[in-house]
Amino acid sequence: MPRKVSGLHVYTMLLIAWLLLPVAIMVMFGFNDVHGKQNFRWEGFTLRWYARLLDKDDLTAAVVNSLTIALASTFVTTVVGTLAGLALGRYRFRGEGVAGLLLFMAICCPEIVMGASLLSMFVTLGLPRGHLTILASHVMFSIAFVAVTVRARVAGLDPAVEEAAQDLGAGPWTRFRLVTLPMIMPGVVAGALLAFVLSIDDFVITDFTGGATVTFPLWIYGSTRTGMPPQVNVMGTLIFAAGALAAALAARRTARAGRLPGSTGGQSGDSSIVPKMTEETSR
């Protein structure tokens, strides 16, 4: 019997289509056989922009700047934010409420305000603006997102699993490496992906703190005055595809963990935890 399509289904599909429409247009115009500087009118299908992806040295340099800063920012943010989220989700201490409030203030702070305040701080300290100031800025505004994501994951963990590991003789480092980290890994991965996306597409704060360093969003903004080449669409398509692939792999891993025998909604993370822990504690 065919399933009945409700109004909610139609609304959801229309909403998803609306959200994906700009991405679809970006991908489509990466195949546009345009001959002028303006890439806003469809002139035919071609693959030559993918073959000439690195023809524009300044665009390539801007993309490399964005990727290196985003990867470095994601690494630092994930490590620091995971530890902060773990502490906030597991322990009760004086000032815990203030710490949580500060995290949400960082998330809610408008980018124009954060960018202006960071610029004032760097100028006051006499720091030259460039890669390092951009990296420091991106780490600052991304940590709160990772910490909140990991804390939500930690809050849903069953403490009996770690207590069982402790009863089996596992030390703090072994418990964290073989029990806690696999269980919070979906939250860590989600936070890392969020930090990467926030960093690579940031414009406002980077414009304040970047100095002469040009990133991919800043290059696109500058090119709108003279004409945006199709390579921008190709670069955007590849970045979007990489992000979508990473998100799909993370979702698939979480779904597989949730279907494993003995798992509790994906919180067990890895069925090999117990054998690994037994091996570690028996050494």
UniProtKB/TrEMBL annotation:
Membrane topology qualifier: Multi-pass membrane protein
Entry annotated with the keyword Transmembrane helix: yes
Chief site of localization: membrane
Region of interest (Disordered), residue spans: 258-283
Pfam families in the record: BPD_transp_1 (PF00528)
ABC transmembrane type-1 domain: residues covered: 63-250
Gene3D superfamilies the record matches: MetI-like (1.10.3720.10)
Subcellular location(s) of the protein: Cell membrane
InterPro entries, per the entry: Bact_Polyamine_Transport, MetI-like, MetI-like_sf
Transmembrane found in the keyword field: yes
Lineage top rank: taxon: Bacteria
CDD domains cross-referenced by the UniProt entry: TM_PBP2
Protein keywords: Cell membrane, Membrane, Transmembrane, Transmembrane helix, Transport
Transmembrane segments: 12-31, 67-89, 101-125, 131-150, 178-200, 232-251
Family: Belongs to the binding-protein-dependent transport system permease family. CysTW subfamily.
PANTHER family: PUTRESCINE TRANSPORT SYSTEM PERMEASE PROTEIN POTI (PTHR43848:SF2)
Name the record gives this protein: ABC transporter permease
The species this protein was found in: Actinomadura graeca
